[in-house]
Amino acid sequence: MITLTGLAWLLIFQSLGEVLTRLLHLRLPGPVIGLLLLVAALRLERVRAPVGAAAEVLLSHFSLLFVPVGVGVITHLDLLAQYGLRLLVVLLLSTWLGLIVTALVLRRLLRGGQGEDPAA
Amino acid sequence: MQDFVQLWVYLSATPLFGLTATLVTYVLAQAFYHQMQQAPWANPVLWTVLTLALLLWVSHTPYPTYFSGAQFIHFLLGPAVVSLAWPLWQRRTQLVDRFRPLLVAALVGGTTAGGSAVLIAWALGLPPSLLRSLAPKSVTAPVAMGIAEQLGGVPALAAVFAVLTGLVGAISAKYLFDALGPFTPCERGFALGVSAHGIGAARAMQVHPDAGAYAALALGMQVILSSLLIPLIARLF
């Protein structure tokens, strides 16, 4: 029941996000506005416990939610036939660059900050 | 036999088919993944997508027919994005303590991932409509679709690129980090969340609790930053 209450809260915040982004002509997607509002609302105990329960369920099966869109690749087979190899190169290289750069920057900034006092 | 064919024609056209096929295939792929000690190449999303794509192709089932059932799963992406507020809230002390390093890493890493995709694609001579759909590829699928739409790309294509990017990250990150070595689970997880969004983060969550926590944190930050920044940057061109 607590998970259902949490799901209800998530849907309420998503709906709020959709309404706000349309009324105010914001450039943020509705769920992102919902996310920001929910972060603020998590101070409230009655929101926090149910949302936590629902979030744990949804996020632990997050990768399942990408399957329907992923299967959509079959509607773009002509595109893959035409550009497949080049697209593969783009996806591989850019994802690896993103992974490495993020990890290196974070390592540098986190260890750089702590590494000064022990004077190794 | 004739009855059987008629039965299949009836069942395959109902939403029940897409939903059942997706869930059953995913549960089997998940079991296989655990059987293989969670080896990166045994990624459950990869094998589920491949199996279902093959199934649709062999049975001549149109994608919209499949999606009429699968949309019930797809729909949950929205609430799942909203629920990223939870990991952000849970790690709020780390987020505040390490705000600058995390923000800089997310910005630089995210820009590298999206920017290099557009640059490499442009250098390889891919058409502009593809470039616009590639820009948000490191953002989690539903948000990537929204951004691509604003950029004049093809939302459905952007979502496919996002899923493929997530798969590349989830499958290859371990080997990449091991080779370029030593990275802590926090750094690995955060990088997966920034560069390979939800699918990368899902992998991080399964492998190590610290990696998972930082991946979820990165995912939340990435979604907010990219939906703010990508349309702004794109307006410059």
Strand content of chain A: under 5%
Structural class of chain B: mainly alpha
Major sheet summary line of chain A: none
Mind summarizing the main beta sheet of chain B? none
Task: Provide the number of structural domains of chain B.
Answer: 2
Give short descriptive properties of this protein.
heterodimer; A: 120 residues; mainly alpha; 78% helix; B: mainly alpha; 2 domains; 13 helices
Tell me the layout of helices and strands.
The complex is a heterodimer of chains A (120) and B (237).
Chain A: H1 2-23, H2 30-41, H3 45-60, H4 67-71, H5 77-114
Helix pairs in contact in A: 1-2, 1-3
Chain B: H1 2-12, H2 15-35, H3 44-58, H4 63-75, H5 77-82, H6 85-90, H7 92-97, H8 99-123, H9 128-134, H10 141-151, H11 155-180, H12 185-207, H13 209-235
Helix pairs in contact in B: 2-3, 2-4, 8-9, 8-12, 8-13, 9-11, 10-11, 10-13, 11-12, 12-13
